[in-house]
């Protein structure tokens, strides 16, 4: 009974937490979200910007849809990050927040999520692959400590909850 209760609680936490975050997030003006996102991207991808690795994003828009948070936006890089509401992106990445966080923490491979249908990539396939490869090239250990530790702790919690939420199978020993 305890294992079943624990699994149900873990499953409910995985489903309920994004809903709890979604409500206050919806109250934040998009202009403030855009400012925070552009500053975060600038900080996270500064080495790639300096090395010219982001040049392929010039005049191209990548949409991000965090489905369970109902957070939708597009980004582009023309020497600085631009963030806008969804309009007409060349490629769209869609997933739930937990999956995106696991990818960010390098605890889950985007290809695996794609084939499990937990990550959707629609539109310009070549641009989508370039974005995916860019994300995979980020040295997680080089991220600023507060961001790295926060993402790491959240990802570890999600992994534990996902393991707890899986039903356990008890195999009976067959008589000898």
Automatic annotation (TrEMBL):
Biological source species: Shewanella oneidensis (strain ATCC 700550 / JCM 31522 / CIP 106686 / LMG 19005 / NCIMB 14063 / MR-1)
InterPro entries in UniProt: SCP2_sterol-bd_dom (IPR003033), SCP2_sterol-bd_dom_sf (IPR036527), UbiT (IPR016830)
Domain SCP2 stretches: 39-135
The protein, known as: Ubiquinone biosynthesis accessory factor UbiT
Family: Belongs to the UbiT family.
GO CC aspect terms: cytosol
Family annotation (Pfam families): SCP2 (PF02036)
Keywords attached to this entry: Ubiquinone biosynthesis
Task performed by this protein: Required for O(2)-independent ubiquinone (coenzyme Q) biosynthesis. Likely functions as an accessory factor.
């Amino acid at each position: 009974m305890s294992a079943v209760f624990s699994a149900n609680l873990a499953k409910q936490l995985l489903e309920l937490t994004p809903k709890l975050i979604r409500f206050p997030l919806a109250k934040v003006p998009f202009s403030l979200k855009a400012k925070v996102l552009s500053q975060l991207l600038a900080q996270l991808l500064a080495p790639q910007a300096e090395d010219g690795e982001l040049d392929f994003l010039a005049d191209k828009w990548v949409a991000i849809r965090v489905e369970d948070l109902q957070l939708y936006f597009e980004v582009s890089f023309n020497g600085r990050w631009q963030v806008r509401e969804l309009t007409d992106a060349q490629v769209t990445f869609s997933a739930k927040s937990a999956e995106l966080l696991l990818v960010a923490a390098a605890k889950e491979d985007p290809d695996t999520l794609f084939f499990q249908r937990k990550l959707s990539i629609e539109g310009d396939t070549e641009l989508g692959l370039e974005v995916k490869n860019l994300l995979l090239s980020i040295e997680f250990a080089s991220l600023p400590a507060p961001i790295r530790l926060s993402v790491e702790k959240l990802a570890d919690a999600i992994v534990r909850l996902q393991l707890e939420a899986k039903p356990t199978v008890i195999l009976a020993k067959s008589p000898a």
